[in-house]
Amino acid sequence: PLLRHNSNASFLYSSVYLALLCAGLLNCVFMWASFGFLTPCPLSVKLMQPYFDHIDLRVKDMEVAKRFYAKFLPELGFVRERHEPAPAEVSGEDFHTFYSAGGDKPAEFFGFTEDKNHQPNGTRIAFWADTREEVDRVAKLVREAGGKALEGPEICADYSPGYYAFFFEDPDGNKLEICCRETPIIAQ
Fold it and tell me: pTM of this prediction?
């Protein structure tokens, strides 16, 4: 079970917990726990950790990639941008990074390195959106930035109920997506 309960209203609290979890509001759950309403088990503590540390993407042209990604990554929470030269012993391996708002703590980041020989493959990077409106807003920015192979935004019923997504490629053909899951998928 996801929770240990301090009352007999377990269904209500479990439903509220899952709704908050799916909305990305675990802090509210832990606040409720501090007032004695819920007691999170170790599994819920694990879920508060970031799911990834970084994405290191290869691009053929650094300047084109910087302009393209700067148009929409800030809308997805990657709000700090920095060019990072390669160490002296590694020529031509400069990279450019968009960091999430981390303040004085380590933060997730989306970075890319120029590789003139890069060949895109079938890998797709999908970004989370909380609402369909957010998907629509980012889709508009990607269109304005010159995204390629545009599909949607659309409901993808074959993926899962309420899966709403916009699929696109960057100028180098790397596959990306912005999606909203209105119905949670919970692993059993």
Answer: 0.68
Separation CA 175–CA 107 (nearest Å): 23
CA distance 14 to 8: 11
Q: Helix, strand or coil for residue 5?
A: strand
How far is it, in rounded angstroms, from Cα 81 to Cα 7?
47
> Contact 40/3 with Cβ under 8 angstroms?
yes
pLDDT band at 187 (very low <50, low <70, confident <90, very high): low
Q: How far apart are CA 121 and CA 36, in angstroms?
A: 50
What local confidence, expressed as pLDDT, does residue 188 receive?
63
Q: Which two tokens stand for residue 125?
A: 């990077």
Contact 28, 16 (CB under 8 A): no
For residue 131, the model assigns a pLDDT of 93
Q: Give the containing element (helix H, strand E) for 40.
A: strand 38-40
Split at pLDDT 50, 70, 90, the class of 90 is low
